[in-house]
Automatic annotation (TrEMBL):
This is 6-phosphogluconolactonase. Residues 14-237 form the Glucosamine/galactosamine-6-phosphate isomerase domain. The gene is pgl. It comes from the Bacteria. Hydrolysis of 6-phosphogluconolactone to 6-phosphogluconate.
Length: 258
């Protein structure tokens, strides 16, 4: 394992191995967090690898060693679509894991949907208020224990895209996005301060199309240019990648699969 500026890059043989390894680590870490703290707050991501990780957690024989009643789930971002649209990150996460575990409904905190009868801007305010409600007194968000993030080919994380205002936000915890270059254009996203408040940020990415963004981020690109460059958890930041995504990471930063 290689440590670089407190960021670790763990390379796996392929997406399946990556998802299985992250799932096993998530289960073990969550059990430890629950032992230590009595509850855990987890931020979920959309995207191909993020959902594959949830499927792998669901498929694990150790799945129910976690006391899911003590775990709360939040989302890093959501696509502004009707509640039952299959492109919603919420729906995909429910199908992959949440519908199969004994997590109380009140512990699951999806963003509003476009058919909920509120505006996108009000949905951002409502999610920020929900975060405050679960936060320690005076704080803007709960103590996030583990935050999952996918990474787009352009280096976006959550719905914070290169050169758009969301990645520059420093005050708000949630932003409404109206001009996403990736469909759909309207989205909701946690901001960098909210994501970086997490004790652990686990980035999950696979495929050759992610290689350039990852290489640039680890080489010190600006967060405006490559948003993932601006992500750092309070205690740990780990990039779980496959060999194709790692192609442009300097070899001295790469740890072998384990
Ligand atoms: O649209 C989104 O894309 C990213 C990355 O997705 P991927 O399929 O390229 O891995 C994801 O992180 C984000 O949550 C999602 O809304």
């Amino acid at each position: 394992m290689t440590v670089t500026n407190e960021r670790r890059v763990l390379v796996h043989s392929d997406k399946l191995a990556l998802a299985g390894s992250v799932a096993a680590r998530f289960i073990t870490k969550t059990v430890d967090i629950l032992d230590d703290l009595g509850e855990a707050h987890v931020v979920l991501t959309g995207g191909s690898v993020g959902i594959a990780v949830l499927e792998a957690i669901n498929a694990s024989s150790a799945r129910d060693s976690v006391d899911w009643s003590k775990v709360s789930f939040w989302w890093g971002d959501e696509r502004w679509l009707p509640r039952n649209d299959s492109e919603r990150n919420e729906l995909q996460a429910r199908a992959a894991l949440l519908d199969h575990i004994a997590v109380p409904a009140e512990n699951v905190h999806p963003f509003a949907a476009s058919d909920d009868g509120i505006t996108l801007e009000d949905a951002a305010l409502a999610y920020a208020a929900e975060l405050v409600e679960a936060a320690p007194s005076g704080a803007a968000f709960p103590r996030f224990d583990i935050t999952f993030l996918g990474v787009g080919a352009d280096g976006h994380i959550a719905s914070l895209f290169p050169h758009l205002s969301g990645i520059r936000e420093t005050e708000l915890s949630v932003v409404a996005v109206t001009n996403s270059p990736k469909p759909p254009p309207e989205r909701l996203s946690l901001t960098r301060p909210a994501l970086n408040s997490s004790d652990r940020v686990w980035l999950v990415l696979a495929g050759a199309d992610k290689a350039s963004a990852l290489g640039l981020a680890l080489a010190g690109a600006s967060r405006d240019e490559v948003p993932v460059a601006g992500i750092k958890g309070r205690r740990r930041t780990v990039f779980f990648v496959d060999g194709a995504a790692a192609a442009e990471v300097p070899s001295n930063l790469i740890a072998p699969s384990y």
